[in-house]
Specification:
The protein folds into two domains: 208 residues, Bira Bifunctional Protein, Domain 2 (BirA Bifunctional Protein, domain 2, 2-Layer Sandwich), CATH 3.30.930; 43 residues, Roll (SH3 type barrels), CATH 2.30.30.100. The protein is globular, with a radius of gyration of 18 Å. The termini are far apart. Helix content is 25%, strand content 29%. The chain contains six helices and twelve strands. α3 crosses α5 and α5 crosses α6. The mean pLDDT is 93. By secondary structure, it is an alpha+beta fold.
């Protein structure tokens, strides 16, 4: 039996009156929801515009990777944000607020041990269930506009993932042993994402980072390997800098702030 499609009428009704999810742009199939949202952003679509696709043929992941997007099994969405022009320092933290909202929602729904792997992967039981990708444009008057893409594995089984990622990917269905109604899931995710976004804009970076910290997949002092443009850094995790950079204590005792990269924990004997 094929998976049910999103109920767009019920979804629009559930999102009525909210900022996130209005307007809603939905398609059965897109190359990339981020690409569609970026085009809408350039055309002047308002903050809160949400692009959804039942399938992506070229879904985007971080660092040029692809996001596997089989039809009707996951959530493939992109949201347009137009943050105030007078708060450019908050731009790097928009994905932190998004990941925090997603993690909180999954935790509240009983998904078990939910963590965030810096900078923007959401894990359940140590495996990746969601990823976020931000792409900025100078589209807001006097400032940047941002599209944040979300890929969330919902009803995939193990065989729905390529063999090379099966050992480190999961879905809500695999993690909980039950099927999920994607139409009902979306408004709950967006509600907490919007709440965390508002907290960031109103209270600033320090509160968002404080709220993010308990979800970190890396404990303080953990030894990490960070791959960055072909270079490798090894150090101990010392939390986050004010703009969300990873703070690494190097072997010589100095602290380096890493703005991007692929971090992994190094197991010690």
């Amino acid at each position: 039996m094929s998976e049910p499609a999103l109920d767009l009428e019920a979804l629009r009704s559930a999102l009525a009156g909210r900022l996130f999810g209005n307007p809603l742009v939905a398609a059965a199939r897109l190359d990339s929801t981020n690409d569609r949202a970026l085009a809408l952003l350039e055309d002047g679509s308002p903050e809160g515009t949400l692009v959804l696709a039942e399938e992506q043929t070229r879904g985007k992941g971080r660092r040029g990777r692809s996001w596997v997007s089989p039809p009707r099994l996951g959530l493939y969405a992109s949201l347009i944000l137009r943050p105030p022009a007078d708060s450019p320092m908050l731009l790097p933290l928009l994905t932190f607020a998004a990941a925090l909202g997603i993690a909180r929602s999954l935790e509240e729904k009983g998904c078990g041990d939910v963590r965030i792997k810096w900078p923007n992967d959401v894990l359940v039981a140590g495996k990746k269930v969601a990823g976020l990708l931000a792409e900025a444009r100078g589209g807001s008057p006097g400032g940047a506009a941002v599209v944040i893409g979300l890929g969330l594995n919902v009803n995939q089984g193990a065989n729905d993932f390529p063999e090379e990622i099966r050992g480190r990917a999961t879905s809500l269905r695999i993690a909980t042993g039950r099927w999920w109604d994607r139409t009902r899931l979306i408004p709950d995710l967006l509600a907490l994402w919007e709440e965390e976004h508002r907290i960031l804009l109103e209270a600033g970076a320090s509160l968002t980072l404080a709220r993010w910290r308990p979800y970190s997949a890396f404990p303080l002092g953990a030894r990490l390997r960070v791959e960055q443009d072909g270079n490798t850094r090894l150090g101990r995790y010392q939390g986050l800098a004010p703009s969300g950079e990873l703070r690494l204590e190097m072997d010589d005792g100095t602290i380096q702030a890493v703005a991007f990269g692929e971090a992994a924990r190094v197991r010690e004997e």
